Structure formats: C-alpha cells, structure tokens
Amino acid sequence: MSIPDSVSALWTRDGDDSDGWDATGARQHRFMESADINAAFRELFEPLRTAIRRGLSNEGQIYGIEVDACVPGELLGTDWIPPVGRGFDDAAALADPTRRRAVFDSLLAETRPEALFAYVCERAPAGRPPHLYLEIVSADGCYAAEFPIRPGEGWHRRDLVKVPHRRLDPLALA
Q1: Is the pTM of this model over 0.90?
Q2: Nearest to 86 by CA among 107, 109, 60
Q3: CA-to-CA distance for 43 and 152, rounded, in angstroms?
Q4: Contact call for residues 67 and 137 (beta carbons, < 8 A)
Q5: 28: left (phi over 0), alpha (psi -120 to 50) or beta
C-alpha cells in the first residue's frame, strides 16, 4: 500500500499493521477523542457519587484510565496511583496545580497502558458550597468538572449533582 507524501509525514514506519505503517506516529497513545473524555467522566461519576453518599471524603487521589486503542469511548480499566509513590506525603499537596501538572507530565511520559489520568478531590472554598473536583488529563488536553455536594435524602448523608465538564486549556500539554 502506498501512502501519499502529504499524509505520510503523520505516520511512521514499523507499525503492527499488515502493511507496516503505524498511525500513532511518535505518540505513545492515540489522540483522545471527545467520546473518550465523555466516557471517563461518565464512568468516574457513579463510583464517586456512591462514596459521597456513604459519607466518605476525598483529600486528593490520582487514577490512571486505560482506553481502547481502537474504539473511541471504550474504557478498559482504571488504576489507583498512590500519591506517596509520586513524592507526596500528604494527598492535599496535589491541590497545587503546578505540582499536579508535573505529576501528570511524568505519568504521560512513562510507558504505561493508561492514556488518561484523573485527579479527584473534595473542596469547600470559603463562601461557596462544597464540591467534588474531577480533572481528567491526556496528552491532548485537560478537562474538569466541579460536582456540587448537597445534603442527601434518606440514608444518603450527602449527594453529588451531575454537571457538564469543560476544557481547561486549549493547548496540548507540552
């Protein structure tokens, strides 16, 4: 199979395809599509909501999310990444965006099956109701949602309100 010159600059030789071309170029993972980001927020919301309903809190955690290499929006698994293993004795220290970005940069540079990483923490800023902050990072961008925490009903101590997520930075992480 022959690839036109205008397209071949985006591809590299030595792929696993039968014709020997690899569409990821020099990237470790494929480009993340909106379906991947939407699926990650959707899949993380329910377990986080369950934890909030049970009265648990979150000072700051990082998770790796493995996505299917071929099917957009298909998640294969999640993995908890202990903050202590990343040089944080206190999980609350991850609240600093500069330090958190450095952790994400190092995770994205590692050879790992996860292509998305999530940071979760509960925040109660002065003058505002508490919320659960969820940030999802890929090599292509950073997205976040602030889910309000409200009083629960029945046996639920608290509840989490679903809100849309937004893109935080328009440029890919460098």
Answers
A1: no
A2: 107
A3: 21
A4: no
A5: alpha
Backbone angles phi, psi at 165, to 5 degrees: -90, 170
Residue 75: name the closest of 29, 33, 38, 40 by CA: 40
CB neighbourhood size of 45 (10 A) = 18
pLDDT, residue 94, reads: 84
Closest to 67 (Cα-Cα) out of 52, 78, 56? 78
Q: How far apart are CA 133 and CA 147, in angstroms?
A: 6
Which one, of 102, 140, 144, 101, lies nearest residue 120 by Cα?
144
C-alpha distances out from residue 135 to 17, 87, 117, Å: 34, 20, 8
Mean pLDDT by 10 residues, the chain (174 residues): 41 46 57 87 93 89 89 90 79 84 89 90 88 91 92 88 85 44
The alpha-carbon radius of gyration of the chain (Å, integer) is 19
| pLDDT at res. 120 | 94
